[in-house]
Amino acid sequence: xxxxxxxxxxxxxxxxxxxxxxxxxxxxxxxxxxxxxxxxxxxxxxxxxxxxxxxxxxxxxxxxxxxxxxxxxxxxxxxxxxxxxxxxxxxxxxxxxxxxxxxxxxxxxxxxxxxxxxxxxxxxxxxxxxxxxxxxxxxxxxxxxxxxxxxxxxxxxxxxxxxxxxxxxxxxxxxxxxxxxxxxxxxxxxxxxxxxxxxxxxxxxxxxxxxxxxxxxxxxxxxxxxxxxxxxxxxxxxxxxxxxxxxxxxxxxxxxxxxxxxxxxxxxxxxxxxxxxxxxxxxxxxxxxxxxxxxxxxxxxxxxxxxxxxxxxxxxxxxxxxxxxxxxxxxxxxxxxxxxxxxxxxxxxxxxxxxxxxxxxxxxxxxxxxxxxxxxxxxxxxxxxxxxxxxxxxxxxxxxxxxxxxxxxxxxxxxxxxxxxxxxxxxxxxxxxxxxxxxxxxxxxxxxxxxxxxxxxxxxxxxxxxxxxxxxxxxxxxxxxxxxxxxxxxxxxxxxxxxxxxxx
Length: 504
Prior knowledge:
This protein has helices at about 160-185, 200-205, 245-270, 280-295, 300-305, 325-330, 340-355, 375-380, 390-395, 400-415; strands spanning about 5, 45, 50, 55-60, 65-70, 80, 120-125, 130-140, 145-150, 195-200, 210-215, 230-235, 360-365, 370, 445, 450, 460, 465-470, 475-480, 485-490, 495-500. Helix 1 runs parallel beside helix 3 (about 245-270) and helix 4 packs across helix 7. The protein is of the alpha+beta class and about 500 residues long.
């Protein structure tokens, strides 16, 4: 059964890194193809010329430059050589990714509305097997029903009812209205418009803080009749020693999980393609965006940071060198345990970039969110007839390759150099007036006073590793003289493009 979970992020403090020094800002920018020498002021960006086996550019001004070398090859699991390593490159065999089976549709019966004190049976997973439990409705409002497991002993200890009450209030007042505004209305398979929250120690036994299952809303293959037919978030007992023990921590998790249900309904069941599927990292990235846009971009910071910087506290394969758009856009069932956090973060960063490029949103002092184009983008994505990477072109109207180039350029320029071009930067972060957490991305931010980010790794060309992932990026620093032509060999199979950015 597909149980979509929010992975807990590392929380052990480490020594903070030094904050990266700012560089001079741009006087102008240039994004035209370089038919002649590229005359770039600080912050200027130019497309390099792509030729068979190389990318090249001639610069008019002496200075320090950054090369964003991007592979636009759409294979998964491939790497290609560049620089001096091209002559020694070995050709890797074609190994298609393993795909998970598609999920066919199923019928979902209607159930009656609930009142406080009612009891019902739920089929849940306890980490070993499915079990039936009895739960009692302890809170019923116009927006939600809170169920408490009456069957499974709570081994955490005393339940902190104030946390559960606070989470329920956040779900009612912020998470539900904001997600509906941002992404669209959820399903109503049980005929009761209220959301159901099931509080059960079986969720702790499963190893989660919270989860949802799309078996509950009509994507039922592999469920074995275990779907509970409704819009349900399964909550564990808050562990006072765990990472997600506070009201805001659990609320952020619920915001993530709730988005999975909205996504599954709009993208699959409501479009009569419940048997279709797409890359898990698209759905995980979108749910991470839901954490952000509902005002709970807190734990999510560790996830997107893992796709930018190299830091063992964020995972053994953190950093942009482990990112590939192919791995979070292509391949229906693709999953990579070794880079799971990094790919979740990369997908979020990509979707956050698209949201901003569409116009994003503004937030009024009372917390009201106003569409500036980003919400329309999200609704178009959720209701698109395309799947996977095709959705990018369908919703943005731009070619995927151009979007990927712009995104990788923005990822390295944000906070490092001012280009003067909104395509090449994330929007400044701002705090939500209700929750206090900051929206968006800053590759040079400090997270919780212990993890100082220093932007994507930039390699000096002379020390570069000479390998680029298919669908990935390499950031290389070079110093060039006026009139100098810079040429970088790249394997043809990489389908490489490159941009040069003057940073000093």
